[in-house]
Amino acid sequence: MSDAALRARAARVIPGGMWGHLNAARLPEGYPQFFARGEGGHVWDADGRRYVDLMCSWGPVVLGHRDPAVEAAAARQAAQGDCLNGPAPVMVELAERLVDRIAHADWAMFQKNGTDATTACVTIARAATGRRAILVARGSYHGAAPWCTPVPAGTTEADRANQLRFGYNDAASLRAAADAAGDDLAAIIVTAFRHDNVVDQELPDPAFARAAREICDRRGAALILDDVRAGFRLHRAGSWESVGVRPDLSAFSKAIANGHALAAVTGRDALRDAAASVFVTGSFWCSAVAMAAAVATLEEMDRRDAVARMDAMGLLLRAGLAERAAGFGVGLRQSGPPSMPLFLFEDDADFARGRAFCAAALEAGAYLHPRHNMFLCAAHGEDDIALVLDAAEAGFSAVRGLR
Length: 403
Description:
Elements: H1 3-13, E1 35-39, E2 42-45, E3 50-53, H2 68-78, H3 90-101, E4 107-111, H4 114-129, E5 133-137, E6 163-166, H5 171-181, E7 185-191, H6 206-219, E8 222-226, E9 249-252, E10 263-267, H7 272-277, H8 288-304, H9 306-328, E11 332-335, E12 342-345, H10 352-363, E13 366-367, H11 382-400
Parallel strand pairs: 3-13, 5-6, 5-7, 7-8, 8-9
Antiparallel strand pairs: 1-2, 2-3, 4-10, 9-10, 11-12
């Protein structure tokens, strides 16, 4: 059935036809809403069109769609059971692997989504400290629960009570927020890098990261790293290893199981009792299939040196885009880690240039995003990057035509 027919059916039974960030109405005209399948670094929409996929399911696909090793592990576990009366043995194996892998981790707990994990981190921090105040960077995204959703519809001021704001990479504003919290400071929560939507991305300033660590140490608060989006893409042991700062709690999801629904919280021993004391749970949080997929994903990422491969392909893409933008005389800003690229056009406050670029590139076979960071996977190769750069030629031509 065609994408158009599926949209018409969905509109009758689903509010708005689709909810949240996956709603294709937020993208340029021509973007598909429904997809038939994925394989490696490619997806096919419901109309049979094939694209090099640079969104990778908005981050969960890190090895490639339907990775054989991961799917084989998932199938073996599915043959034994998935949702049981309690966890399968694979849960212990996965927790052991995360504790061995993640630099700060002494224990692990599992959930299903990134929002589950960040919410659990905040809950554990408050339980450990007996305090209320959480410091949150302005513009950062930590999930879709009422305490952190970027859309105020359906929420109240009370949902965000006991939150104070600071600027990402602004150590002075972080110290000011900590001073305002006083003796009620429970935690600082911070993303692995600044990946706010529609703004240039910023890697963490080591001085800012050290300031966050120092504040938490001095005040007895917990430092929470929201590694949901970047975890295992930048460093195998946690994204802030590159700046030499280790958190007390980390939230992981997205890439942890190569597209299978899973999230994790990892933490230090000092927070173990608090983690055991809080009531955080879900009927599907012990899904064994996703955990088996995660074990295989972590193994395959190490075996293939996935972080280095994604970084290399991202650098190749970045260089090619810069060269072509210059050739067309188009102002293009690129930011973020190479494996999680964002590009924005100069003088494009309404994103008309970005939308024109992506619509043209889509027609040429590259699935990009006009204002959100993208994601490479380990299945992307030089031929895929070459196809994206060929599609970018059409995109830059469309941008130049807007003048």
